Amino acid sequence: MIKDTLQSIQGVDIFPIISLFLFLIFFIVMVVWISRLDKKYLKEMAQLPLEPEENEFSNLAGEKNEK
């Protein structure tokens, strides 16, 4: 039933080709963009989650909030 419905649409055979080209263009753009990123920036961003800020985790060290 679905096969017959899709075959009745004129020009339906171009949609898989268009989606393949869109995927390839997106993939190539992402590879080029990532390869052009600054390596120092990438290292800093990779280390960011591992370096906690002093104010953010001060309560975890046993300090009490004084209000």
Structure, explained:
This protein has one domain (2-57). It is elongated, with a radius of gyration of 26 Å. With 67 residues, it is mostly helical. It has three helices and no strands.
Furnish the topology, listing elements before pairings.
Blueprint: H1 2-8, H2 15-35, H3 39-47
Supply database-style keywords.
3 helices; mainly alpha; about 70 residues; elongated
Number of DSSP helical runs: 3
Count of strand segments = 0
Q: What is the string of SSEs from the N terminus onward?
A: HHH
* C-alpha geometry: elongated
Fraction of helical residues: 55-70%
Task: Specify the structural class.
Answer: mainly alpha
Low-pLDDT residue intervals, each spanning 5 or more residues: none
Structurally, how many domains make up the residues? 1
Largest sheet, in brief, is: none
